[in-house]
Design a protein that fits this description.
The complex is a heterodimer of chains A (about 190) and B (about 80). With about 190 residues, chain A is an all-alpha fold. In chain A, about 65% of the residues lie in helices and about 0% in strands. Classes of the chains: A mainly alpha (about 190), B mainly alpha (about 80).
Chain lengths: ~190, ~80
């Protein structure tokens, strides 16, 4: 799933809705909210990995979007702009609190997703890996969760974070290096 | 420099381990309830007011700058 399609524009978005939103029209804002809330929520959930937090940050994201309506440029499309604001809202949240507990209790406990847990990798190793990941600096963790875990294209991650592709690769590299060192200190050699 | 530099295979193993510890969320996702009411509540919230002592501090600083302009560089130095 991608919030932004192609170049970040949504061809089905009526330009008058975008223009009305830019002028602070509440109905236009509600229309955009309903069109994009699912994509914004999904993007945030991939970062924070907690449904309640994703709810909260989706509202926070659209609140920031509404406040910034006068700075919105309709020609650049809404989806990519919304994703960038969502990413920064999630990053602010990560900076404001430690997510180690959420990572381990919420998602490690129920890994019922696409990648089945490898029987050869013990639950203890997975738990320690999740905890080590939660200890990464937020800027590195957000790049790694999007690029490595969620396998989003580097360009999309770069656009969302407002940095270059090279910077994304560097953050991922640093994240993996720190993670490897942390795990090795715990006697785990991935 | 004898620190071991991980190769691509080792990095791939680490990425795989990471995905097993924190499985990717591949499915289409949707909030399980309508967030619009929460959005409206958020928009109705009054913005946080600035405490009176912040205004007093600001007034004091402006007064200081007005009566003792030479103090401005000193103040900026300690910022």
């Amino acid at each position: 799933m991608n919030i932004a399609e192609g170049d970040g524009r949504m061809p089905n978005e009526a330009s008058d809705v975008l223009n009305a939103f830019r002028h602070g029209d509440m109905d236009a804002f509600e229309t955009l909210f309903r069109q994009h809330r699912r994509a914004v929520y999904g993007w945030i959930l991939r970062i924070v990995r907690d449904a309640a937090t994703a709810d909260e940050l989706t509202v926070e994201t659209f609140w920031r979007i509404y406040r910034a309506h006068a700075r919105f440029e309709p020609s650049r499309g809404f989806a990519g702009w919304a994703r960038r604001i969502a990413t920064h809202a999630a990053l602010d949240w990560m900076k404001s609190r430690r997510v180690e507990r959420e990572l381990t209790t919420e998602f490690f406990a129920e890994p019922a997703s696409a990648v089945a847990a490898d029987e050869a990798v013990s639950a203890e190793i997975r738990r320690k890996t999740a905890m080590a990941f939660g200890r990464l600096p937020p800027k590195l963790r957000i790049a790694a969760v999007l690029a490595v875990i969620e396998e989003q294209p580097h360009k999309d991650v770069a656009d969302a974070l407002g940095i270059s592709i090279a910077a994304v690769k560097l953050r991922v590299f640093r994240a993996l290096r720190i993670l490897r060192k942390d795990l090795e200190q715990q006697g785990i050699r991935p | 420099m004898n620190e071991h530099e991980p190769n691509n295979i080792e990095n791939d193993r680490l990425k795989k381990l990471l995905q097993q510890a924190l499985p990717p969320i591949k499915d289409e996702l949707d909030p399980d309830h309508d967030l619009w009411p929460a959005m409206l509540r958020r928009m109705d919230e009054k913005p946080a007011t600035t405490p009176w002592f912040d205004w007093a501090l600001l007034a004091g600083l402006i007064g200081l700058a007005a009566f003792f302009p030479t103090a401005i560089p000193v103040f900026l130095y300690y910022l």
